[in-house]
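Objective 1b of the project was to move from sequence-level analysis to a structural picture of ligand recognition. The entry below was assembled by the postdoctoral researcher (A.K.) and checked by the PI before modelling. It contains the amino acid sequence of the target and the SMILES of the bound compound, 5,10-methenyl-6,7,8-trihydrofolic acid.
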Amino acid sequence: MSDNVTSVYGGAASAEAPADIPKRKTRVHHLQAMKAEGRRWAELTAYDYSSARVFEEAGIPVLLVGDSAANVVYGYDTTVPVTVDELLPLVRGVVRGAPHALVVADLPFGSYEASPEQALATAVRFMKEGGAHAVKLEGGERMAPQIAAITAAGIPVQAHIGFTPQSVNTLGGFRVQGRGDGAEQLVADAIAVQEAGAFSVVMEMVPADLAGQVTRKLSIPTVGIGAGNECDAQVLVWQDMAGYTSGKTAKFVKKFGQVGDELRRAATQYAAEVGQGTFPGPEHSF
Ligand SMILES: Nc1nc(=O)c2c([nH]1)NC[C@@H]1CN(c3ccc(C(=O)N[C@@H](CCC(=O)O)C(=O)O)cc3)CN21
Ligand SMILES: CC(C)C(=O)C(=O)O
Ligand SMILES: [Mg+2]
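Corresponding predicted holo structure:
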């Protein structure tokens, strides 16, 4: 593949790229236009150069360097401990691997909540040092000042409402949000982040009907994860999507592959062939 950005979907790769994926860099206004046209799009997490290249070739328009790296890259139990310094190098790899994608950097717990000034300073680091094109943060009404400050500086913000994993300790565990009385707050959060200037909003673990109502009410795209089929877009952690997550996954996950099984098979066969002395063969030797 050539380094030329305009040629990524050219040549042999064009047969595999979905026909309607534009050969252009994804911008915030493209996502807005897709909402107006009723065309759904897929967002996926990415944490390194090699996987980002594959998602670029698959035509995924938006890649999120999620703080879920805490779990799937660093092996922490929750997203609470992961730091800006742990996430920044991952952002750089994804940006290099996916020249057409809009790369969103997730602001980790503790890097934005204290004040709009703190939030802007962290967002600026992800833009300048990471090369990100946008940032994401968790919270609705209560984070509106942060969203407004970042947006005012020319940095697009993806909001995240409903179940916000960084607040797992106040939300009382990993559970659906917006049921019963919570519905009113969820709608208020959605409106608040739109008014603060967010270009899109992730809704995590929200009843499908409520997510549909919010999607119709808002002018910005909604991105669902465990929020039913009426959102403008969907997002998943790539290891969940590809069957590369160990243990039980959430109800909202569909495994579109068995990447973990295939990697285990390959590693097992490699070790066996080394043990048997059949690898490397003459064709791998100098
Ligand atoms: N691999 C991975 N996938 C994710 O989607 C993800 C992460 N990591 N890390 C950060 C957050 C944490 N998320 C989570 C974590 C657990 C559940 C979960 O256990 N859900 C259960 C309980 C639902 C309920 O009781 O209402 C489920 O069955 O869906 C959901 C979302 C979503 N994010
Ligand atoms: C699951 C998505 C929305 C996320 O915030 C993450 O991967 O960190
Ligand atoms: Mg996150």
